[in-house]
Please model this.
Amino acid sequence: MSAAPLSTQQPNSPDVVTIDTEHSYYVEISIGRNVLTLFEQKGAAGRTPIAEYSVGTAVRGLHTYPLGLGKVTGIYFNPWWYPTPYSRQVFRERGIELPRAVPPGDPLNYMGPFKIALSHRTSKGAIYRIHGNNNPKRVGRRVTGGCFVMDNADGLALAHKIRVGTEVNIVP
Model:
């Protein structure tokens, strides 16, 4: 397998990682099943599932989560979290004052050790990600505002395997 360096393009994150450049992948996320399936593209032979991961998905009743085909637009390691004003308000109501930027490794950093940015957006412009988390009990449940949370070790393995441009299909 040949590998090419990929800059994380994340402020204050000096990591350089290698990615698999010999294989092509496709990701499907099932919101109803709370499962992310990684497929290897096999040319004319189609796609072969090679891994399945439990993920946290959108809470029931949320109508703005992403569906359909999109792609990976960025892969970041040790990311900062920049909570939206809405997120900061939700935390404030819980008695937690979030800073505008939460550094990597901070217990309040809901990105965990990686984030995979997706092209999926709501009509209001909100973007979605696959990311780690600081609470393993969230994985495999309907608990998010639309993003997909993974076990940190599983997500890091996925983030090191796929590359920017990988197709991601989100199904109900």
The two ends are 35 Å apart (CA to CA).
